[in-house]
What does this fold into?
Amino acid sequence: MALFSSPVGQVQIGWQREGAGFRLSWLESGGPPVAAPDREGFGTRLLKRNLAAEISGEINIDYAPDGVRCEILAPHLSS
It folds into this structure.
């Protein structure tokens, strides 16, 4: 994500249970300004297509100027 090549900034990772599933959040801040890419890279496609299908959930990525935000929602935990 945006902090990959930056020596400054931070990432907050958190999760919470939601019903039978969970929500995972990735929030970047304090790094260089962010802009949405012209095209989706391999990692973004992997998350949005493969991981979303695997967990029967959804992946939302927001390229906010102050940092990338990614939320992964998995409606059901496997047992």
About this structure: The first strand starts at residue 10 and ends at 18. The chain is about 20% helix and 40% strand. The longest helix spans residues 42-55.
